[in-house]
Amino acid sequence: MPRTDDFEVWIEVDGKRAEEYEERVNQINNEKEKKTMNTCFIPSVAGKNFSVVIQDLRVDRSSRVCARCLVDGSFMFYRLTRVTKDDPHPIKVDRCQLTADTQCFFRFGAIKLSDDAQTSESDRELLSKLGSIQVMFRFITDIKEVERPMDNFAQLSRAPRPVYERKKKGGGHRTEIGQEVHNPISKWRTEWKFRDDLPKTEFTFSYAPEEWLKAKEIIPRSPEPDGDGSHSQTDYPECDFLDEEDAEAFRQL
């Protein structure tokens, strides 16, 4: 992921940084908003756990910063960056708080399809954000500790609705609940106010099976071995999650 002067984010799978492809940076700079948007693609493997790693690169950390993470368009966690200037260690998050006493690990999973439109997911915005991990940095002020119950649990469903097969989501992966662990939360909460006068920084990772990324030529193709390279459709279970055009491109690898 293109790092900014102030922040860097990456995704780790099996303790290794995921390869990043088609890195892009866009800027919004007007009277209403100043924001830097960084995007890229990463390969995902269904059944593999992953971590979100956040690095504050600022030398001057007198202004506190909050990192907010959304996965597949749903809230997962907040983290406040560290104040200590000489602490080089990044913040690594591999789980989220589901309830007051339960956490779960992040895990890539396959999107389930259905031929029943009535029982399938109908939220267009959610469907458009499946297969994405987003971290936004915002400057904050008026930070204080208060005693109150937690009210912003991760919005990760134990039983996500399937996707209507006629709206096949290219890529075919989403994030699911991994192993659950018992972890009661503290009664103390950190509260703050966002500073709208300072710029925002956003990192978005679009994830999909490596084969799909190769089919879309996001990952460069490897040289084909000698032979006709023909395969039957059943050789590629991931094609079940692609539309016909994408699936055909996939089979031509």
Automatic annotation (TrEMBL):
Keyword presence, Coiled coil: yes
Statement: the UniProt record of this protein carries the keyword Coiled coil: yes
Domain DUF7918, chain residue ranges per copy: 7-222
A Pfam family recorded for this sequence: DUF7918
Keywords (A to Z) from UniProt: Coiled coil
Biased composition (Acidic residues): 237-247
Sequence segments annotated as region (Disordered): 216-253
Domain of life: Eukaryota
Coiled-coil region list: 11-38
Cleavable signal peptide: none
Record-given protein name: DUF7918 domain-containing protein
Organism expressing this protein natively: Sistotremastrum niveocremeum HHB9708
Classification of source organism: Eukaryota, Fungi, Dikarya, Basidiomycota, Agaricomycotina
